[in-house]
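Q: For a teaching session next week I want to show students how multiple molecules come together into a single three-dimensional assembly. I've collected the sequence lines for a complex. Could you give me the predicted structure tokens for the whole thing so I can convert them for display?
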Amino acid sequence: DQQVKQNSPSLSVQEGRISILNCDYTNSMFDYFLWYKKYPAEGPTFLISISSIKDKNEDGRFTVFLNKSAKHLSLHIVPSQPGDSAVYFCAASEVGNTPLVFGKGTRLSVIA
Amino acid sequence: DAGVTQSPTHLIKTRGQQVTLRCSPKSGHDTVSWYQQALGQGPQFIFQYYEEEERQRGNFPDRFSGHQFPNYSSELNVNALLLGDSALYLCASSFRQAANEKLFFGSGTQLSVL
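A: Of course. Below is the structure for the complete assembly, covering every listed component.
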């Protein structure tokens, strides 16, 4: 029973264009959402987060959008760069620093 | 400033054996969490150690156990290994049980069970 779903295993985007990675969740108790990036042979690294009281959070080229009614969030990367090629994990947690629940990840390939 | 370090990086075991994985947290961190990432899956929470005690546990059998030492380092032990235990085991550290973006991950130990 997956509480966090990333339905696209992979995504290919041209350099300079926008990358949009999607994530859906089923647990209505989730109130904090994060995106992690993972390169091969490295651990996941935190990218950007959003609290359930917001619908958008921006950090440089990365923006996360949250639609609570649809239980959906997305990560936008603009412009995409070859160095952004990695696996992106969506994660969520409930109130009170509960353990993160991760999706299966989406492999992003940015083609020069 | 050393980040989270894990050893060994790779390990091959056979079914029924026991394995111990090790983790040293990032400097200044006192909490260690362990995650299992099976092939094609996202990391799944195993348990968290803080003040040398298991504080939270995910849906994993008792074959998975751990320990935290006074210097905050931690071990993950898996007994009676099954083929399905083959995975990347990630250690993450934080301060005072903080989660979310304050979690820092190591590069993991790749365990193969034959």
